[in-house]
Design goal:
The protein has helices at 20-23, 41-49, 62-75, 87-94, 125-134, 148-159, 180-187, and strands at residues 8-9, 31-35, 54-59, 80-84, 100-106, 135-145, 164-167, 193-199. By secondary structure, it is an alpha/beta fold. It has one domain (8-199): Vaccinia Virus protein VP39 (Rossmann fold), CATH 3.40.50.150. An 8-stranded mixed β-sheet has the order 1-4-3-2-5-6-8-7, sandwiched between helices. It is globular and about 40 Å long. The N and C termini lie far apart (39 Å). It binds S-adenosylmethionine. Its EC number is 2.1.1.33. It catalyses: guanosine(46) in tRNA + S-adenosyl-L-methionine = N(7)-methylguanosine(46) in tRNA + S-adenosyl-L-homocysteine.
């Protein structure tokens, strides 16, 4: 296992759930997940803004993971790490239940062609089960996308999740740095839509 001081998290065992302390030594602090964290622009800015919280990025491309790690080292941040792994596997199998206070899914691949819709994260029951498991009660799931059809798809899927309640997200409601892809889309005059949900406690 890499130590908590190493920005890249390398589990010693990929076939059992990690404990919060294996992710960050001070694993009792609130933790936020950035799924498909790209080059780490958003992840690192969030970690700098919130030194009282921990942040874990999940990204499958090695070059982007290395770029993120470089940013983390340059900023001297100890509350942010990145894991090179596939998102669905990570939330469904590697991360423990009730770990995250917020889960960010920002500018994910929209897979616009109909024949590729099966690849969309929210079309995968395993991903949805992992999302439910890893997010704490009262925690939030936040999504941004430049693709309007994908946005509608996310709203439709989330409307079917009984334990998730949609929340307003007005511009500037809370500090939320722009992501690398978002900056690129905005420079091309594309609009970026956003939505967020709160996970409700179980009905007893
Ligand atoms: C369009 S980019 C957005 C990156 C970043 N969130 C941003 O907004 O700048 C999508 C990122 O998700 C990563 N990605 C896509 N599918 C993934 C998966 N199943 N598991 C892990 N990473 C994934 C890609 O490698 C890519 O870096």
């Amino acid at each position: 296992m890499s130590t908590s001081a190493d920005p890249i998290l390398v589990p010693t065992d990929y076939f059992r759930e990690l404990t919060p302390q294996e992710i960050f030594a001070d694993g009792e602090r609130p933790l936020e997940l950035d799924l498909g964290s790209g080059d780490g622009t958003f992840l690192v800015e969030m970690a700098a803004l919130h030194p009282e919280r921990n942040f874990l990025g999940v990204e499958r491309l090695l070059g982007r993971v290395e770029k993120t790690a470089k940013r983390i080292r340059q900023r001297g941040l100890k509350n942010v790490r990145v894991l090179r792994l596939e998102t669905t596997y990570t939330v469904a199998w590697l991360l423990p239940a009730n770990l995250a206070s917020r889960i960010h899914l920002l500018c994910p691949d929209p897979w616009p062609k109909k024949k590729h819709h099966g690849r969309r994260l929210l079309n995968d029951p395993e991903f949805l089960a992992g999302l439910h498991k890893v997010l704490r009660d009262g925690g939030e799931f936040l999504v941004k996308t430049d693709d309007h059809h994908y946005y509608e798809h996310v709203l439709e899927v989330m409307a079917g999740q009984a334990r998730f309640q949609r929340l307003d997200w007005p511009e500037g409601a809370f500090p939320y740095p722009k992501t690398d892809f978002e900056v690129q889309w905005l420079a091309l005059s594309k609009s970026v839509e956003r939505a967020r949900w709160r996970k409700l406690p179980p009905v007893v």
